[in-house]
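Morning run. Coffee first, then this:
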Amino acid sequence: KLHSDLDKGVGTVKYTLSGDGAGTVFTIDETTGDIHAIRSLDREEKPFYTLRAQAVDVDTKKPLEPESEFIIKVQDINDNEPKFLDGPYVASVPEMSPVGAYVLQVKATDADDPTYGNSARVVYSILQGQPYFSIDPKTGVIRTALPNMDREVKEQYQVLIQAKDMGGQLGGLAGTTTVNITLTDVNDNPPRFPKSIFHLKVPESSHVGSAIGRIRAVDPDFGKNAEIEYNIVPGDGGNLFDITTDENTQEGVIKLKKPLDFETKKAYTFKVEASNLHLDHRFHSVGPFKDTATVKINVLDMDEPPVFSKPVYTMEVYEDTPVGTIIGAVTAQDLDAGSSSVRYFIDWKNDADSYFTIDATEGTIATNEILDRESTAQYNFSIIASKVSNPLLTSKVNVIINVLDVNEFPPEISVPYETSVCENAKAGQVIQTVTAADKDLSPAGQRFSFRLSPEASNKPNFTIHDYRNNTAGIETRRNGYSRRQQELYFLPVVIEDSSYPVQSSTNTMTIRVCRCDSDGTILSCNVEAIFLPVGLSTGALIAILLCIVILLVIVVLYVALRRQKKKDTLMTSKEDIRDNVIHYDDEGGGEEDTQAFDIGALRNPKVIEDNKIRRDIKPDTLRFPRQRPPVEDNTDIRDFINQRLQENDVDPTAPPYDSLATYAYEGNGSVAESLSSIDSLTTEADQDYDYLSDWGPRFKILADMFGEEESYNPDKVT
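And here it is:
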């Protein structure tokens, strides 16, 4: 209820309400200020509401007092039962657990207010599952209530748990859940045979390693606790059999370890022990976790094939033995009561089996062809024996025949040796160690002996030393050898074996004389030794030589053509000599050459005909200076050339045949006039060249040329 001090009860005050739930959950009487709930409240949905109230003047609509805020709390009542949010539960506990063994903890949740009253106080109890399990009323922990609960008796338990609020008092609300509890297995039971004696019947023809029977011990445990291991107790007959465990069925599988023979023994008796593989020490007091049973096996008589006296027959025969020679025999018997006769024959597989024959009745083996040890040293084939009374019953045996060697081949040097001796070799020096080989099969202790042939024993060059271990050394018998005198030496060596009859051979060794250094290292032997390492064949060498010859022929032809062209340029006819230009490829000596080429030989055409060899003739030092009148001003090139042509025509030193003269016309008009000495009227003898010495070392050669009058040789500039 809301009330303002300004409200005189005359209806001049109006009350208003705003905030959470105003108008929907709560309403207010505008005249009296009473607040009412217009629908039911749920604390678990909304525990409190915040509202604002105000008193307003009815006439002016203005607030009489400031707005006030207040909270309405919803008081809890016990309207929610406890709930197991994680249920139903599944749990397990080992069988044979003691009382109080922990199983599982359950928890129930109550939505009521735990701070107000006992509405949320939960108490746990078991409605179904006693007397096997118990639960703590406060914590909800489930434990075992009975000792030695056996899984083999009962494995699954369903327990009904109740959670009640109000502390379990009358009127409280309750919720339930189910807990499914499984007893897990422990190895608390030993294996047991359902009977003490097992009888088995086994045919004597059973193969070794085959299963001949099964026995089983029962273990009520589960999984690895029920795994059983079977063993045969040592005793009578147990050594012929073996037993293993079938992992899928946990049965003992009895297998045959050795062949059975009805005629030898008709029955066997032994004991089998069954035990657990995984033991639990907590149950050792119960007793031994194993059991034993007796197994009796009766051997059944069967019609069996013949049996050979040996598993494998090994025989020996010398090579070249005559055809039809008996080298051995095989024997097979019928051990059955009827004792039938036996027939023998060779199991043909390849052509090698045709080298031997067998007597069908006696089983004797003889040669059918001439044997050669060097071709085949061993023969391996099978012989089949069958019963006359039942030819389908056969047995097979392997026969190995070794062909013995007859000494028919002489020993020889094992590998071809390339023996060399140094020119500076000393006497007694070993230059080669040789070994021998024999195609025959050498028996133990056979030795090879080495010696020189009689014709080589007296020669003073080389000898052989037998080391008595199937090797020998080639030794020198003198100091020094000369390649120029003799390059190759041939040494005949006789090799004998120790077998009977004795075989020997003469092997000729080639010894090459080589040039060596002081340490004995070979430097060179001969031309062949140089070319041999190249590894070229004879055809390749011939091709290379042909290429070289072709190149030489091409070069010779080229040189001949060049000379022929030079000869064609020289005309021996006097009439044609002036119509040709003769080229001379002579080079001058540069600045050091003060003697110019003598062209005197060109003045006489006879010199070319009489003597083709060039002759250098030093010309006379006295020359008539050529008069070169100055060129008139404004003369053209034609006048200049005509003037020079007339000068050459009257020149007594000009050659008597046509020649080429080159002039460099500089032209006129220079204020300083021409600087060239060509047009100078003065002779070179009047010039003083001493000032060149003052120009430094760079002009030393020029100063020497013009400074020495005797070495100066003026030439005409053309």
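DSSP finds seven helices and 37 strands in the chain. Good start to the day.
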